[in-house]
């Protein structure tokens, strides 16, 4: 599998290792596969008894046969994924794909852990070092910080919007130290994301610091996220009576893009539902055909507070400017804060379980879909993207109770915060990076 820029598909292609290390293409575009492998036979062969590592190893070997044989692919999967997803049935028609059982208690652990393993492998081959520069609206930063903490040859700089992540998310970003630096930006996530993109295109920085990214702009983050879609399908395919639908809480749209990758490679699925908060530029696009980025709105589902989602560029490339009908496979639902609270409260009342505000957008969208198709036997797999304990304040407000905090999160609350406050400008970021790493 080779990769080229979304902004110039005729440009020379690069290897997976090069795409991982560069993060962003030289023209500012995102690296995107140049071909769509046909994995239908592999997908059909995976049974319900397959573990997540089994699926991940098979996928790694199938996608990159020139890089990994079966044994090394499985070894990489074992190294990258010492945790796995779980499926739980929430209610008739709605199944939760729980993706929060990794070290930072969020779905982004899957992509970050795989990226850390492959990036360290690639740097060791080359005898190089790299500085990872990444922006976070909450969960990406904590997953990246934990996946790369203590890695040889890699330093990590995380930009996060001051006052716009939960207290626990902030502790996850700012307490590790060592090779992990947290920059607290006076602004929004969109400012953080803009600063990162501008840094990658800055000649002075590019010459002085070996920068790469661990955001979902890095294709090395997206590809492993396709593995849990494949695993969920393998677990459920003998039980499905009608349609299989994935409902994906969406902010920067990397998680949904990974699912679309799996579908294009041969995973049978009828539809994807993009569940957003009030930052609804993609649902609006699906209804009007017009993509209108705008400043992000602050919501309870803060990790999805994105007004200009980067991975929309990849979605456009997948559907080739209209040659494939995006509305034939993707729909969108926007969910406001009041509805998020009501959904969290309703799930707790009915089941005694807590869900995070992001998962609540997916549960609401799944229910709306089933309501619109009475009598349907469809199965809607809703991605449960974060542990509710990361959002105790929202749970308390919505439900009047708080979930139990896992020990791996609770111990972080006792550690001192270490961050550097910076303005939301490229000049401020450039000064920090040059002073630390030039």
Description:
The structure is a single chain. The chain is built from 18 helices and 13 strands. By secondary structure, the chain is an alpha/beta fold. The chain has 2 domains: 200 residues, Rossmann fold, CATH 3.40.50.1100; 133 residues, Rossmann fold (3-Layer(aba) Sandwich). The strands form 3 sheets. A 6-stranded mixed sheet has the order 3-4-12-9-10-11, with helices on both faces. It has a 5-stranded parallel sheet with strand order 8-5-6-7-13, with helices on both faces. The protein is globular and about 60 Å long.
Ordered list of secondary-structure elements with their pairings:
Blueprint: E1 3-5, H1 16-22, E2 31-33, H2 40-45, H3 52-63, H4 70-80, E3 86-91, E4 94-98, H5 108-126, E5 130-135, H6 139-148, E6 154-161, H7 167-174, E7 180-186, H8 189-200, H9 203-208, E8 211-212, H10 219-236, E9 244-249, H11 254-264, E10 271-276, H12 281-288, H13 312-318, E11 330-334, H14 337-351, H15 357-372, E12 379-384, H16 392-399, H17 407-410, E13 420-423, H18 426-437
Parallel strand pairs: 4-12, 5-6, 5-8, 6-7, 7-13, 9-10, 9-12, 10-11
Antiparallel strand pairs: 1-2, 3-4
Helix pairs in contact: 3-4, 3-10, 4-5, 5-6, 5-10, 6-7, 10-11, 14-15, 14-16
